[in-house]
Amino acid sequence: MPAIVVGAGLAGLAAALRLAEARPVIVLAKRELGDAATALAQGGIVGVLGSDDSVDAHVQDTIEAGAGLVDASTAQGISAASADAIAWLVEQGVPFTPDRDGPLGLHLTREGGHGVRRIAHAADATGHAIHQTLLAKVLAHPHITVRPHCMAIDLITHRHLGEGAAPGCYGVYVLDQCSGAVETLASDAVVLATGGVGKVYRYTSNPDTATGDGIAMAWRAGCRIANMEFIQFHPTCLYHGQDRRFLITEALRGEGAVLRLPPGIGGDPVGARFMAAHDARAELAPRDIVARAIDFEMKKHGLDHVLLDATALGDAFLREHFPTIHARCETLGIDIAREPIPVVPAAHYTCGGIVANLAGRTDLAGLYAVGEAACTGLHGANRLASNSLLECVVTGRACANDVLARSPGASPPLPGWDDSRAMDADERVVVSHNWDELRLLMWNYVGIVRSTRRLKRALARITLLRGEIDEYYARFHVDRDALELRNLTDCAELVVRSALQRPESRGLHSSLDHPQALPVALPTVLPGRQPI
């Protein structure tokens, strides 16, 4: 019986490659194989490699960025595995930027919140380089079956099997988008590597796949969900009419780029720098601080964007170290060596998710969660830059090790998918309208800065939307758009309910009604959804 990996990003591919050493694996990707958040990651992956660095130093930086909510033992475990993770990626053939004098022959850069240079990278397209390398390995592996355009609908659990069934996950219902058929796939090991919930917001750096599918499925199956109020907004997403999803990596700030207001604001003809007024670390402050600072300055001055000025770095340096950004901006008419880049914050990373340990174990036997879909405690109230790719590799492989250490279980007969009373959809406008309304609602009411009144309004409207979506889901044959909307609505509710349960400002959760942090930091844990 094959293990099933839902998602073809870094965490899923790392898990699949390790699992395939001992058993067959099915990897499900709901769109094209390249449509993963991993492929968009620019900055790099943490590796505690240098003589000036240590696991304790990295853990301390992680804890400080996480605003008191980081699980220290989790951070210690993942940091301690970072050198092995980098070495494994090198062994797979990932073309990291070299430096003959650097540890492992790699060039290390620095990003916001890090005390030293510890970020291994492949120029400014690290995620793409890693993803393409591992994807090629997965596609060539004889024990791995990759199925694009196959979307998981729901987990098959003991709830589907009736009384007497042992609690656990027994498989997954899957929509084959090419045929329209719903399949019943049995497995004693289902790995959710489905990424975050960025598409719940109107403006996001995430790919279209980031609709919180795994988080929503696990919640509906009864798993606990933690810390969903902590949505990281990347401070510097390109602001341009032709491209509002392209990230400008913070590694650019790590190398000396600075944030400015547009020329003339406040009487400065060049454009005044403003980060020093918000944090002593200025442009190297953690992402939540930089994003709030930009949001504050935009609202204060009535701006649509601010400027990231990298002109002091010079054309040759920018072309060598940031070729992707240089080329993309050039196609849009921006010469980053001679003019600043217009940027704006955008929803970027989900710090919360399915409660899981370092091996990916969830509340349900046989169900694992890794990568951005999971909440291991590593990120706390704010993720430290470049810890995400590291977590994907470490937990993906640890999850596979845990699966392989167990004896494969027999699968009981599973009920098939029943759509005998469903019809073909006759009014697609319901899905498109509710999709747009939900994302705008979340952007306006549950964004970088929140208030209790806004959150309650958001929850009231989400409740109404849920009724419309549940009615649609019950009446019509499923398709990807309806399934994604259903999942996004579940995740929006989880974000709002989590935010309402946190009467303080901490990390990525900034409340106008509760501007101070509480003396003791506690996670927000929501129980799984009860059967209807």
Give the oligomeric state: single chain
The CATH superfamily of the domain at 234-348 turns out to be: Succinate dehydrogenase/fumarate reductase flavoprotein, catalytic domain
What is the correct CATH architecture of the domain at 234-348? Alpha-Beta Complex
Overall geometry comes to globular
Compute the number of strand runs: 21
User: Total number of helical segments?
Assistant: 15
Strand content: 15-25%
Mind telling me the CATH class of the domain at 234-348?
A: Alpha Beta
End-to-end distance, in Å? Answer: 31 Å
The strand line-up of the biggest sheet is 6-2-1-10-17
Main beta-sheet annotation = 5 strands, parallel
- What's the CATH topology name of the domain at 234-348? Flavocytochrome C3, Chain A, domain 1
Rg, rounded, reads 22 Å
- Mean pLDDT, rounded to whole units? 93
Helix content: 25-40%
Q: Structural class of the helix and strand makeup? A: alpha/beta
Low confidence ranges: none
